[in-house]
Design a protein that fits this description.
By secondary structure, the chain is an alpha+beta fold. The protein is built from seven helices and eight strands; from the N terminus they run E-H-E-H-H-E-E-H-H-E-E-H-E-E-H. It has one domain. The strands form three sheets. A four-stranded antiparallel sheet has the order 5-6-4-7, with no helix packed on it. A two-stranded antiparallel sheet has the order 1-2.
């Protein structure tokens, strides 16, 4: 769950008296090259992500929240996704998305606590401890004819072992990563999005495919949407997205929805979501 910029200030108005509590990192996203955003599917005061093995469970969770908030809050937009398009542990296989591409090979794993502390959890100058910013993006495929790809060889398996053999293996893997990047075309998506091309920027990305039937021309009305957690969008999502301005993949996709939200810490017993903001 996250809070959008418009919850703090909308059209210059401090609607709920919390303008001063807006985290510094919760900036309005700029217009990116290739954006074709639908205002009805972008932004919002509050974002809620509900996940379950069975989509029926996720749908009912959102439905109940909308019912509870009736008369106070209204659903601005929603999207039902399926599958997963990123690995969550170092030993997990990278799944494929609807494009047929391996998606999320260089994703931060849930077991990499040091990387999560450095790149995901907000602290200090980025806002109250525990905040994290989570831009969301929706990409719709437009007659994509790309051929399926494979996981890039620049993906490295990380190890915490301190032995000589382990260090040697890490050096070999780093060399293979650099060699693989050097062989990629300058406008290759995986190269432009890679941390080595973005001053070391890393994000915790969770992507999902979606399909809303056909578009009336025999093409699937389908695509990919994701939520990307990071400490600060200014040095995370915004930096990476600007790098993708020359991405060759842009020929086959368009960005139709977007938003950025600040996520508060989890709820402790006796507390409530967003207590660090509203208490």
């Amino acid at each position: 769950m996250g809070f959008g910029p418009s919850l703090f200030v909308k059209d210059g108005e401090d609607r709920f008296g919390i303008r001063a509590r807006r985290p510094a990192a919760l900036v309005d996203l700029p217009h990116f090259p290739g954006d074709n955003l639908d205002p009805a599917r972008s932004g919002g005061d509050i974002a809620v992500q509900a996940c379950a093995d069975d989509p029926q469970v996720a749908v009912h969770a959102i439905r109940n929240l909308a019912r509870i908030g009736f008369g106070v809050a209204a659903v601005r937009w929603s999207q039902l996704g399926f599958g997963k398009t990123s690995s969550t542990t170092p030993d997990a296989q990278t799944p494929r998305n609807l494009f047929g591409f391996k998606d999320g090979t260089e994703n931060i794993a849930g077991t990499e606590g040091d990387l999560l502390d450095r790149h995901v959890w907000a602290a200090g100058e980025t806002g109250p401890a525990g905040w994290r910013a989570a831009p969301t993006s929706s990409r719709a495929a437009s007659g994509c004819t790309s051929r399926p790809g494979t996981a890039p060889r620049c993906a490295s398996r990380r190890t915490s072992s301190g032995g000589t053999r382990a260090r040697g293996r890490c050096r070999a893997e780093e060399g293979a990563r650099q060699a693989a990047l050097a062989q990629m075309k300058p406008d290759a998506h995986v190269r432009l999005a890679h941390p080595d091309s973005n001053q070391g920027t890393r994000i915790l990305r969770r992507g999902y495919s979606f399909t809303d039937g056909s578009d009336g021309l025999g093409q699937l009305d389908a695509g990919l949407f994701f939520i990307a957690f990071q400490r600060d969008p200014r040095t995370g999502f915004i930096r990476v997205q600007n790098s993708l301005a020359t991405d060759a993949l842009n020929e086959y996709i368009q960005h139709v929805g977007s938003g950025v939200f600040a996520c508060p810490p989890g709820v402790r017993e006796g507390g409530y979501w967003g207590e660090t903001l509203f208490a």
